[in-house]
Amino acid sequence: MKNKAENNSTNIKSVAQMAGVSISTVSRVINNPESVSEELRNKVRKAIEALGYQPNQIARSLRTGSTKLIGFIIPDITNPAFLLMVKGAQDFLKRKGYTFMVCGTDHNIREEVKLLKALLSQNVEGMIVTCSGGQNSDFSRIVNSTNVKMVFMDRRYEDLNVPYVGVDNTTGVEKITDYLIESGHRSLVYLSGERNTSSARERLRGFVNSVRRHAVVDFQILYGKFTFESGYELTKRLKEIPQAIVGGNDLVALGAIEALTQMGYSIPEDVSVVGFDDMFYSKYSKPSLTTVRQPIYEMGYTAGKILYQLLSKGNIKKTNTILQTDVVLRETVKPRNNNPKRG
Amino acid sequence: MKNKAENNSTNIKSVAQMAGVSISTVSRVINNPESVSEELRNKVRKAIEALGYQPNQIARSLRTGSTKLIGFIIPDITNPAFLLMVKGAQDFLKRKGYTFMVCGTDHNIREEVKLLKALLSQNVEGMIVTCSGGQNSDFSRIVNSTNVKMVFMDRRYEDLNVPYVGVDNTTGVEKITDYLIESGHRSLVYLSGERNTSSARERLRGFVNSVRRHAVVDFQILYGKFTFESGYELTKRLKEIPQAIVGGNDLVALGAIEALTQMGYSIPEDVSVVGFDDMFYSKYSKPSLTTVRQPIYEMGYTAGKILYQLLSKGNIKKTNTILQTDVVLRETVKPRNNNPKRG
DNA sequence: ATTGGTTTTGAAAACGTTTTCAAAAACGTT
DNA sequence: AACGTTTTTGAAAACGTTTTCAAAACCAAT
């Protein structure tokens, strides 16, 4: 049943032959149909149909110098948050006729450089990258010396002159910490993940800002990873249980809750816990998690939009787009009254 | 600071010029270094280094006919389960030097056909696809007429002669239903999602098999979607609450639990609930979900391996690889004793 | 020194397109 | 019918590689 004609040996030449015209004419029918007479146009179209001809993108790209390809580099293709951003960007860009290559680095900087090179040699026209960790000189060198358009999304290497779209991590954590302090929490623990990403550092700064501004002295900062298990471990090792725990993301907050529950504390009666991200499951956890919602999809969509501007309007002034967050109140926080003198 | 030499105008010709050799020699240094004298080899390498030259993959592909590109088509790039499979396949294939294009259809069949065409015209050498829904004649026609290698992963279009690697959905659901029935549950509800995917139909069959084999008569099958919300809605609409609910996946099971809880039932004291997937969060839900674990990553890895065989050894007999599942016992099931006469 | 064989090299063709350019055809005006 | 103008067409060049083929260079043995 295999239609021999329709396999990859069909090229523009065979179409031309079948239609009895030159290959130039076939090409024109495809790219600029009005420029060829109706008669020939029909013949050619019939031949294309009959042969199931699809132009070879490779050859086309080589000739035109345009691949219509956008590359994505993200730390982990298994993390839905990154992919929601990617989807946002794609939703914008696919209407402009681009196709996509998305690659994950597994949080590995060497891999990140490898992928950067790979995408470049595939002649992508633009790239959107969410950085994997500490800055790398190879990465910077390559970025500085290429002229394919690029935008950083969610995380960036700060000293590279590349447009960035992200979220106001600092203010986000600051707002939710403010909320905790202003609702009476007097002792706080911040559970950070790895400090080698810009977003992690920004969130930490938000916590510090809030705690300083309110002159809270009873606080502690712990470093681990951005995982459930890390939140769990760090919490278990706590000597003194604070009135509130701020997780660097939802996962560590959820881990903390698990640990606290096992230790016999109840949430939020004994201790309040908050997170950051508002990932899909946080609203369904028991108790449901008070956290900071990031406009993940919008971030990606915006990144796509900015990349498109770069691509079409040529260079643009360095644009940093910072989106705002919302704190979403749910069940893991309970106001406290620590200061009976005040009452 | 931009190194003008390193931008995309560097091609094999400029390297040749700088090194004072022909382009053939440069090409040889890259692809078959031993075939050129040490002297020239060094000169060329120095020039490559100095110019930051990277071969243009497009041109190379055009000439060699080999792109080293693998395409993925999955229903939703935002769903971590699909991406874990993709990662499995990539982990195998990337060691063989392939790069990847992964595309999501948003469960849309038209989009699926579009992507299939797009990937084909990008000259991918192989594809791994997880089908989006009901079969489509365009899709079949294209698949039958191309000779790029392909394998179906997790879901398939049954009448296409394409190797498939999946999971024994039927036996999976059958085992967990057996477990429920054999631990005393006498009235069951199965909450299915959309019936247009092979895996959904297989799971449903598992439920029916078990219920028939045990001659259970008090059961009901409800159709919705594979979402939390659907599980919730379907459960809320239940006239009579059964002793056990089997969710077509974890999400609908979790939705069912939420609904039951709101309706005043406690899990598992009043009703047992099980799911299918063992997604990341199921072990952390409260109570933790008894479910069926699928070897998601392994499925992808196997798909990658099979595709590679196809790619290297040419055609292969139709291989269907079916991986087995495990039921994982957690807290949402409680044995019942319905038959006091037995005791 | 010449021969014969091997290794190293470069010129040119090829991959499948798009695009430039000039030739051919069509058309409208006289 | 002859002319000029416009439209339609095809030949050929070009994109950046790899690869074939033959020429050049080297080397060993006479």
Describe this structure in words.
The structure is a homodimer of 343-residue chains. Chain A is built from 12 helices and 12 strands. In chain A, helix 5 (80-93) packs across helix 12, helix 8 packs parallel to helix 9 (198-213) and helix 10 packs across helix 11. In chain A, the strands form 3 sheets. In chain A, strands 2-1-3-4-5-11 form a 6-stranded parallel beta sheet, with helices on both faces. A 4-stranded parallel beta sheet of chain A has the order 7-6-8-9, with helices on both faces. In chain A, 47% of the residues are buried. Mean pLDDT of chain A is 92; it is low at 1-7. Chain A is α/β, with parallel strands linked by helices. Helices cover 42% and strands 15% of the residues of chain A. Chains A and B meet through helix 4, helix 5, strand 2 and helix 6 of A and helix 4, helix 5, strand 2 and helix 6 of B. The structure holds a DNA duplex (30 and 30 nucleotides).
In short:
With 343 residues, chain A is α/β, with parallel strands linked by helices. The first copy, chain A, has helices at residues 12-19, 23-31, 38-51, 57-64, 80-93, 109-121, 137-145, 169-182, 198-213, 228-236, 250-262, 296-313; strands at residues 69-74, 99-104, 126-129, 149-153, 164-167, 188-192, 219-223, 244-247, 272-274, 291-293, 320-323, 326-328. In chain A, the strands form 3 sheets. Chain A has a 6-stranded parallel β-sheet, with helices on both faces.
